[in-house]
Each structure stands twice: as C-alpha cells, then as structure tokens.
Amino acid sequence: MALDRPLEVLTVCGVGMGSSLMLKMTAESALRALGVDARVECVDVSTARGKQPDVIIGQDMHTSELPELAPVVVTISDFLDSDGLESALRERLGAKGWLP
Amino acid sequence: MVAVTAIGVRDAVPAADWPSAVRAAAGPLVELGAASAEYPEACVAMVERHGPYIVLTPGLALVHARPEDGGLSVGVAVSRLAEPVVFGHPDNDPVDLLLAFSSPDADSHVAALSTVAKALSAGLADRLRAARDDDELATLVKEALTDV
C-alpha cells in the first residue's frame, strides 16, 4: 500500500554521529534517485530502539540487533555505495509498494 | 569553507595494529587543539565497545569519539598508513586511510562531515591514496571541505 506521507528512514551506527551521518547522505542520494519522499535521521542503536521507522539501514553488526524494528531492514557494508543502496531499496521498497 | 577550526594530515604513519592506527589518526586533533589529550584513547574504546563499524567503506575508517570524550572544536584529520591494518570488519578490511574528526557538541560537525561524505562519494579516497606527499594530502582535504 502506498504511503501518503514521507517515508521515515533511520540510518544507524554505534554512536549516531559519524558513520550513520555518512550513511544518511548516501541514503538521501539513493532515495532521491528513486524519487521517494523521505525523512532520513541518523541515530545510534539504542536510540533506534525507541523509534518506529519504516526503514532501517546499517551494517550487519547493528541491523542484526534491530531485526523487528521496521518493516524494511536493509544491511549494507559500504556506506558510500549509493548505487548499491539504490538497487537494494528499489527491490525492498518496491515489494512494499512504496515506490512512486 | 564550512566551519572547521582545525585540519591536519599525516602521511606514512607507522601502525602495527588498529588501535595504534586509531590513536595516530586522532593525534593531529589533539596537537591542533581540537580535542583533549584523552580523545584518541576514547576513539579506541569506541571501536572496542561498538565494533569495527567505523570502517565504513573498503579501506577507510572514520575515527571519532563522543563530544563529551574531549571534543573541543570541529577538527578533521586524514592519515595515510605506511602499511594497512586489519580492524576485523567482515567486508571492508584492510584499512589504509583514516579520517578522524572531533566536535564540541552533537551538531557542529554535521556540515563538515556531510561535505566530506559528498567528496568521498565523488572519489576523494582514491585521490588521497594517489597523493604524492603531505602537502598534496592537505590540499585535497581542504578542497574537500570547501563548499561548492
């Protein structure tokens, strides 16, 4: 079912201010390329636990701690790989009907 | 130029293991007054506590600790290792480039780091690897921090 609001996306890392900020930039670029209206926030793992996002993106060592937190959990290891993230999001968001 | 008070570079840094590499990478921030003396050790502790996720792309580690661990101002330092080290990251080892930063609070570094992220996406890491010496490293880092 299509969302009638911006997609809520969390990028996660251990501290929430360095790696996840880099990943936020990459995620915004990938989501822009897909034409998805999204709000992306970078947080540490414990802050993420208190939220209810639509999508979580992070490295396996963090997303594996948050498997049930969001309908879509995307694990990537290269935080600068915008093309790779775009294709992962195209598949996962497409399956949810969340692509424009 | 985004608000960065200190920019440091170090080339051919000798490091036997990842903690030495992290300490060395954070060193210029202390020398430049952007972080206090305990900051490098806090950066090591961060990896010990949270894992090697700071290796955020193949070969590159983003070294930092929390503002309350001794961040005094927004500083950025790039170090190139004499020999790569292994962090124990499942995909992105070994590491030859370290990018360290400090921030006095949770927000001041955002503009600088976002600018660096864009530059890295546009191939900055490879340009840093190809730099001939300290001067060229410094020029590249300063260019990367210049808003375009």
- Quickly give the structural class of chain A: alpha/beta
Q: How much helical structure, as a percent, in the residues of chain A?
A: 40-55%
| Secondary-structure element pattern of chain B, one letter each | EHHEEEEHHH
Largest sheet of chain A: 4 strands, parallel
Which CATH class of chain A? Alpha Beta
CATH architecture of chain A: 3-Layer(aba) Sandwich
Q: Tell me about the largest β-sheet of chain B.
A: 5 strands, mixed
Number of strands of chain A: 4
Structurally, the number of domains of chain A stands at 1
How many independent structural domains of chain B? 1
Mean of residue pLDDT values of chain A: 94
- What name goes with the CATH superfamily of chain B? Mannitol-specific EII, Chain A
Alpha carbon gap, first and last residue of chain A:
11 Å
Distance between the termini of chain B: 9 Å
CATH topology of chain B: Mannitol-specific EII, Chain A
Tell me, briefly, the overall form of chain A.
globular
Physical arrangement of strands within the biggest beta sheet of chain A: 2-1-3-4
Strand segment tally of chain B: 5
Structural class designation of chain B: alpha/beta
Identify low-pLDDT runs of chain A: none
Structure notes:
The complex is a heterodimer of chains A (100) and B (148). With 100 residues, chain A is of the alpha/beta class. Chain A has one domain (7-96): Response regulator (Rossmann fold), CATH 3.40.50.2300. Chain A has helices spanning 19-34, 45-49, 60-63, 82-96; strands at residues 7-13, 38-44, 55-58, 72-75. Chain A has a four-stranded parallel beta sheet. In chain A, helix 1 packs across helix 4 (82-96). The relative contact order of chain A is 0.23. By secondary structure, chain B is of the alpha/beta class. Chain B has a single domain (6-144), classed as Mannitol-specific EII, Chain A (3-Layer(aba) Sandwich). Chain B is built from five helices and five strands. Chain B starts with 5 loop residues before the first strand and ends with a helix. Chain A binds chain B through residues 13-15, 17-19, 21-23, 25-26, 29, 59-62, 77-82, and chain B through 46, 49-54, 56-58, 62, 64-66, 89-92, 101, 103, 106, 109-110, 113-114, 116-118, 120-121.
